What we know:
Number of helices: 3
Structural class: alpha+beta
Strand order of the largest sheet: 1-2
Number of strands: 2
Mean pLDDT: 84
Low-confidence stretches: none
Shape: elongated
Largest sheet: 2 strands, antiparallel
Helix content: 40-55%
Distance between the termini: 64 Å
Strand content: 15-25%
Amino acid sequence: MQHEFRVNISSMKNVTITVEESALEWARIEAAKRNSSVSRLVGEILAEKMRQEDAYAQAMRGWLGKERTWRSDGAAYPSREQTYDRAL
Length: 88
C-alpha cells in the first residue's frame, strides 16, 4: 500500500509525493525521533542531498580544471614518491 503526503519546505511550495508504506513508517519514526514532522524531515533530507550533490559537482569541476603535470599516454603512472615529492 502506498500513501501520499504533502511536503512543505520553508518559503516553499507544497509537493505531493507517493511512498511505500514501509518508507512512510520509517519517516514517521525518524521524524518523531527528531521531534519534527514528516514534511520537515523530507525537506531536510532533500536539502542535504542537494548540498552533497552540489559539493561533489564543485569538487569534480575543480579537479577537472587542474593542470596535470603528467598525462596518461600508456606509460606507467608516477610512483607514490613522485606523486608526493618524497625522497626515495
